[in-house]
Amino acid sequence: MATTETLLNHWIEGREESSRSGRTGEVTNSATGDVVTQVPFADADEVDAAVQAAVTAAPAWESASLSERTRIMFAFRELLHARREEMARLVTIEHGKVADDALGEVQRELELVEFACGLAQLLKGEHSWQVSRGVDSYTLRQPIGVVAGITPFNFPSMVPGWMFPLAIAAGNTFVLKPSEQDPSASMLLAEMLAEAGLPSGVFNVVHGDREAVDALLTHPRVNAVSFVGSTPVARHVYETATTHGKRAQALGGAKNHAVVLPDADLDYAADQIVAGAYGSSGQRCMAVSAVVAVGEAGDALVEKLSERLERLVVGPGDVPDSQVGPLVSAAARDRVRGLVDAGVDEGADLVRDGRDVAVEGHENGFFIGPCLFDRVEPDMRIYKTEIFGPVLVVLRRQTLDDSIELINANPWGNGAAIFTRNGGAARAFQLRTSAGMIGINVPIPVPMSYYSFGGWKASLFGDIHIHGPEGLRFYTRGKVVSSRWSDAADTPINLAFPTAN
Ligand code: NAD
Radius of gyration of the chain from Cα atoms? Predict the structure, then answer.
């Protein structure tokens, strides 16, 4: 395995800052297994330096005019667009996803920035003239101060983009703690934000692991925390942050079901499900991970899925024909392999086995090929666990009602999809399914930037979804002002509860 001594820096107060903590981790090229860089693990002092930079920058940034903030967001959008291929390449190396998938991630991020460019319109309040004689009322949405963002490995560029563009546009300052598995994208974001003219200290990056996260969650000057990652960590983040008086939203893991009714176009459904299940090698929180085949749809659907898997090309993300890239790490690959073994041991029918896939010239890459299980039962580990790999499980049910009941009994509730030609069935599904995002003949219902993203149950701790209109609410505090400017000198004293007159 090749190694390199390069150590990434943090980004504090508008420049790179070397780490003094002495603790580091390795960042690997997922397709080759080579170490591409070392990442520092910040200690509490380094986190404090980043938070203090954000505290110092906050008053001036909050006072910057809406036009000034808008110009910077537009300039950043142009830079990200110009350097999108460079960003996508970084994502492919450290994450492993194939090139067009990485470019899709950056495109979605561009759209999030474009939404934030509308900040002047978004931050408009409401105004009522004459709520009582001589009294006007209006609303303000003010920034909350220092916001921390803690992000997962699976979208190293886009998921930070769910957070910082809107947080900054709304006048907050920001400290990002990206995933230690693919941290380089966050440094490119920092560089471009600085080049766009963002004042020093408004956007900071500290690298690290649990120690850095906990330092952010307990820091008295951090006022809000946005987290995206696995459910156990999301629960820890939400509980710790709120116990320390912070506003928090913590998005967790998922097990996303796709129900296929017998009246569906099965070829279309199979195409869409394969894309949704095996894209990014299943490492998406909105990956289709469980198919519920209803009635006679089952046998035909499994056959169609299996045929399509035969044709998928497993390979390194930087080779144009590759469709299924490696997993992010050797540990992730071994964990997924272990879960497939468990599925076989527990008696599920392994229709496609990708465990021993070989990618020529990339023997040390973290590859596992597409796997497909049929006749899976709810008590099996492969159903109860978020596998986060290229493994799809099929369960059989007799009716739509049985399928909805199965989904609603699952602890997660991120996304759910239905494939059907029956409008009544689709309508019942969208109303009765316990999930935050529903697809109707759409496998990955990831909302656009101008809607909000979030799941139910163990997929989100907190009340407010991320990005879009709800994101703007999360990053601002509301205030209602009632004002009287008329000459009120001769108003008599009245101790009764005030009512409009
Ligand atoms: P993870 O929970 O391991 O890590 C997420 C972040 O938390 C990282 O920055 C990591 O450094 C930090 N972290 C890890 N362990 C910690 C601990 N014990 N204490 C404090 N901080 C800790 O998640 P991951 O493996 O990077 O990402 C994959 C997971 O994220 C999957 O479960 C996936 O479903 C989920 N995810 C959810 C969404 C969503 O919108 N709901 C989106 C993307 C990913």
Answer: 25
* 241 and 272 share one domain: no
Residue 285 among the catalytic residues = yes
Q: Pocket around ligand 1: residues whose beta carbon is below 6 Å from it? A: 150-154, 159, 177, 179-180, 209-210, 213, 228-230, 233, 236, 251-254, 285, 386, 388, 414, 455, 459
Q: Is the pLDDT of residue 108 over 90?
A: yes
The whole-number pLDDT of residue 3 equals: 46
Q: Three-class SS of residue 337? A: helix
User: Could you report the per-residue pLDDT of 172-220, keeping only the tens digit for each?
Assistant: 999 999 999 999 999 999 999 999 999 999 999 999 999 999 999 999 9
Backbone phi, psi, residue 221, to 5° = -95, 0
| Cα-to-centroid distance, 75 and ligand 1 (Å) | 30
Q: For residue 45, how far is the Cα from the chain centroid?
A: 28
Residues 181 and 286 in one domain: no
**pLDDT at site 445:** 86
Of 195, 50, 66, nearest to 123 (Cα)? 66
Distance from Cα 127 to the centre of ligand 1, integer Å: 41
The answer to whether 54 and 201 have CB atoms below 8 angstroms apart is yes
Distance from residue 93's CA to the centre of ligand 1 (Å): 19
pLDDT of 1 strictly over 50: no
Q: Is the pLDDT of residue 2 over 50?
A: no
Q: What percent of the chain has pLDDT over 70?
A: 98
**Residue 499 belongs to a domain:** no
CATH number of the domain residue 296 falls in: 3.40.309.10
Structural domain harbouring 99: 10-252+459-480
Q: What separation in angstroms does the CA of 116 have from each of 73, 74, 251, 378, 445? A: 7, 9, 21, 42, 21
Tell me: the pLDDT tens digits for 217-257?
999 999 999 999 999 999 999 999 999 999 999 999 999 99
pLDDT single digits (tens) 36-64: 999 999 999 999 999 999 999 999 999 99
Q: Is residue 158 part of a domain?
A: yes
355 and 471 both lie in a single domain: no
- The one catalytic residue in 285, 294, 359, 460 is 285
Q: Which amino acid is at 383?
A: Y
| 150 Cα: distance to centroid of ligand 1 (angstroms) | 8
Residue 485 burial by CB count (10 A; 0-12/13-18/19+): exposed, middle or buried?
A: exposed
Pocket-testing residue among 108, 154, 288, 388, ligand 1, by greatest number of atoms within 8 A of Cβ: 154
What pTM, to 2 d.p., does this model score?
0.97
